[in-house]
Amino acid sequence: MNNIEVVGLGALNMDCLYQVERILDDGEAMVTVDIVIPAFNEGSCIEDVLHDVVMARQDDWFRIQNIYVISDASTDQTDDLVQQMAASDRRVKLIRKPERKGKQDSVNLAFSITNADIVVFIDADVILASEDSIRKLVQHFRDGNAVVVQGGLVRPRPGFTLNPAKQAAYFDWLLVDRMRRRKAISWWSIDGRVMALSRDFYQHLVLLPSLADDQFIFYSCIQQGCQFVWADNAIFYYGLPESIADFSHQWSRYFFYTS
């Protein structure tokens, strides 16, 4: 990763000609998609998200070529479960970091190893609402000039059992979702649980450890005058926090950006 150029906000070409190459005409190349799942001790859920991604429906214009799980030095059964899945689907690949360095470092590592036209980041505690969730997400790159596409309605999975932490998080989701709908483009628009980036955009990015990954990516996109899309029809579900401490950690980043 030493050869990656560090780019700050607004340092790229403001004309923003980034877009995924048009395809589908006879003789033109298939668009490649890499899925990246950052993980730290996700043994309780990694199989679910991998199963969903492996079974995701593709289209005649794109192919999922790699499914990377970047393990942040996990100490539970996460790595073993990923290797078991890799034995049955060669697209699944485990990348194990020798020491824990956080999600931003995992995202930067992904930028350095992928060369796909589109890279899709999915949190390990996310499940797809349907086999078409990824297809609907990446469709926006084909239909327009988007460089960042946010998974739409990333909401708590149905059938969850309430406890105080989950109830607080569910109320939080309702509040944030309402704010997103009032203003199409704002810092509420981005949710790092599911997001897709075009190659011409991500290849210039290096995340800073002091900033939330999704906010940095969102503001890089907006400040460069590029197109951000909230894919309302590409639905994913995420796991709610089990404790108030976990919920407080999730909410702290919102407080940081509103203070």
UniProtKB/TrEMBL annotation:
Gene Ontology MF terms: glycosyltransferase activity
UniProt keyword terms in alphabetical order: Glycosyltransferase, Transferase
Pfam family, one: Glycos_transf_2
Domain Glycosyltransferase 2-like: 35-188
Matches recorded under Gene3D superfamilies: Spore Coat Polysaccharide Biosynthesis Protein SpsA, Chain A
PANTHER family on file: POLY-BETA-1,6-N-ACETYL-D-GLUCOSAMINE SYNTHASE
Name listed for the protein in its UniProt record: Glycosyltransferase 2-like domain-containing protein
Species assigned in the record: marine sediment metagenome
Lineage: unclassified sequences, metagenomes, ecological metagenomes
